[in-house]
Design a protein that fits this description.
Strand order of the largest sheet of chain B: 8-9-10-5-11-12
Oligomer: heterodimer
Largest sheet of chain B: 6 strands, mixed
Radius of gyration of chain B: 19 Å
Helix content of chain A: over 70%
Number of helices of chain B: 11
Distance between the termini of chain B: 32 Å
Mean pLDDT of chain B: 88
Order of helices and strands of chain A: HHHHHHH
Low-confidence stretches of chain A: none
Amino acid sequence: MSVRERFQHEMESVQKDFLTLCDQSIGRLEEAFTAFINKDIEAAQKIVKRDAEINRFEEGINDRVILLLTRQQPVATDLRRLIVLLKAASDMERVGDYAVNIAKETIHIANEPFITSVELLEDMCFKATNMLRQIVGAFVEENTTKAKELAELDDQVDEMYGNMIQHLIKLSSVKPESISQIIYLSFISRYIERCADLATNIAEYLLYLKKGQRFDLNS
Amino acid sequence: MVKTMIKNENTMKNIVQSSQNVGEESIIINDQNKNTVFGTKNFNLWYGDHHALRDINLDIKENDVTAIIGPSGCGKSTYIKALNRMVELVPIVKTNGVINYRDRNIFEAQYEVEELRTKVGMVFQKPNPFPKSIYDNIAYGPRIHGIKNKKVLDEIVEKSLRGAAIWDEVKDRLNQNAYGLSGGQQQRICIARCLAIEPDVILMDEPTSALDPISTLKVEELVQELKDNYSIIIVTHNMQQAARISDKTAFFLNGEVVEFDNTDKIFSTPTDQRTEDYISGRFG
């Protein structure tokens, strides 16, 4: 295997690890939300305990990328690919963190009935996880068209988030005794909205990787 | 003897000068405020039947460090040796097209090669000091140009050695043989020798390829300092070196200029896939 082939092979291997990280983080987000809907404290506690796994996985990717930067001194697309992997891995690890946060809020409110319908939150989470899966697919195919489509979906999630917060604000005046659950629900909706933002961040990285220019899909 | 075969110089003047793409057009990067030192227009060079440079169109600006990169045999050394007509030393060479130095075709019959080489100095891959004292190495050029006054020569030697960032290392042993210096020091002596005749342009053909990393760093720092007063064209196989020290980079392949642009652009988002493949180590 030539030096270049070994480098290529190593980059592909890091990318494979990144995809595994994506799968784990998105899976964790889905599990956390399911635990929230089902008020499943045991499942939520497991998610909190397993946070370190995703962190370690991301650190492993960082180490491998730093080693490749040091040893191969890449330029142009190779350099952008490694930088993008570093940043996207960091964002995917954040998705894992938000899953843990949702699990922690779940533990706080699991022993009381929902004071309002969480259907909007379910829709938000469905859209956000779809966005994350879509960007992972686009990343594998290096499909910039699919990446750009995420901006529109993010706008929808932002709108839903705005509606949810308005609803919770109104609810706080009607049910002041449930203020703690209202706050936890607003936190959860914020976490989901941030996950959708992270999906668009990764879409921006993909565009940067392919075109060498920065795009802002979050504005 | 070089046989120039310029058929119609007027047509050369009509060449449209645009940006980026290589072909029949000179490559101009958006820095119109700078004067052109070397304007190369439709330049071709053959070693016998071997067509070594093909339709080269390049504008090299003053006070720029211009790096020439490309795989072995791509014509980069041949190109810079054409710039001071060193290619004339190869009997089977023939050329056509134009290389203008400060708007004058260097292949004009009336152009004295000595006059050109006074303005266009060269530093080679392997340090090649003369088997003389450090002082005599530097004073050699000025003496040839008729300077005999000891005080003037002393000043030139000191100024040149300071310019090449080696004065402090050799000022106490100027009468010692330059062969006694390290490779890195010898290379800076060669640069000082080049500076002594006050050239306008310095051509460097892989000047650090025979040096250790510390000496390489010193020469690279020197290049950065010299660009304030000189235009520098450097052939290098070291991609990181080109990225570190040059303002512009030209990528040569099979005797052609594939891409010429700002170094930042070449090493981040090159336009041509062949450039990307080369700088990324996919071939060459």
